[in-house]
Automatic annotation (TrEMBL):
Residues covered by the S-Me-THD N-terminal domain: 6-62
Origin species: marine sediment metagenome
Protein name per UniProt: S-Me-THD N-terminal domain-containing protein
Pfam families tied to this protein: S-Me-THD_N (PF06032)
Gene3D superfamilies tied to this protein: CV3147-like domain (3.40.1610.10)
Length: 63
């Protein structure tokens, strides 16, 4: 489970490793602040072969 503290760390790490190409850290931190639930991570090896999965990402350039 990833809570707000862990997700803030993800935002800062992504901002550093993305060298600004991932957009504003402020936008990512705002999303974390607005979250109501923790994020559950799943190991793909634990999913049945018939399972469906979706990956979501925010893309684009900062204003």
């Amino acid at each position: 489970m990833l809570g707000k503290v862990e997700l803030e760390d993800v935002v800062w790490g992504s901002t550093l490793l993305g060298s600004g190409g991932g957009g504003s850290a402020h936008d990512g931190l705002r999303l974390v602040t607005e979250m109501e639930n923790e994020v559950t991570l799943l190991d793909p090896a634990d999913l049945p072969e018939s399972a469906n999965a979706v990956a979501a990402a925010g893309l684009g350039s900062p204003k």
